[in-house]
Amino acid sequence: MAVTIGAVAAHFGRDLPRALAKVEGIVAGAREAGCDLLVLPDAVLGGYLDDLREPTAAPPSLAADAPELREVARMAGPMVVCLGYAEAVGDVVHNAAVCVTGDGVLGHHRKVHLPAGESRVYTPGDRFGAFDTPVGRLGMLIDYDKTFPEAARSLALDGARVLACLSAWPASVTDRADRLPQDRQARLFDLYDCARAAENQVVWVSSNQTGVSGGLRFLGQAKVVGPGGDVLCRTSSKGGLAVTSIDVDVEIARARRTLHHLDELSRPAYAWGTQS
Which of 7, 9, 63, 149 has its C-alpha lying 20 to 30 A from 45's C-alpha? Predict the structure, then answer.
């Protein structure tokens, strides 16, 4: 059965009421487009950092049961919606993602891999886990997580058929290009999206922030990638909604018909940390 998937490129800042209003508009547009699954960027509620090397302004953090998250669940209704926020657990703050419908929370992820100055603000998560949803078994990653092939592979081995990667991924802070499509990080962002989908033979949904936060300029480039690594739909560096319909089970079965990467993985060769 075909599932209609939407990947969002949009800017979200510190203003929580404004962010909720923007989410409501995006969800309404996705509903009109027939989306069953909508993946919003990282840091939707409260925005991202202002600098990766020396962050000076931490985003507002929310508890996992905050009214803002309950409001997004209400907006979602029967749609499956993923979004990112800063999660407060006592004095600890995680860069987190949550997956909801109108029935409540379906899944949760805390970003494991923290680049550069993120570790000054956030505490890393310590696990990857897939979960069941009305659109199938799904796993979530947060931007820099996708740089590490083991992260996506862990979710695929846990049965995830769709991987949602929510990002606040900026252009290069050390070697900026005049135009975003030529930026080194723009090329890497696209490369990782296609590689992670193809090597795990799963459907990959990549969202991202756009615009500017402090000294960071975000790339956009939201997309849905098929299990063969082909981009099915995408946005530009500006805001937008990339939408496609795909029969996930049929396309994954087609990709794995001759070469089944997960079944053919030689797992004993990867027993890291063991002593011979």
Answer: 149
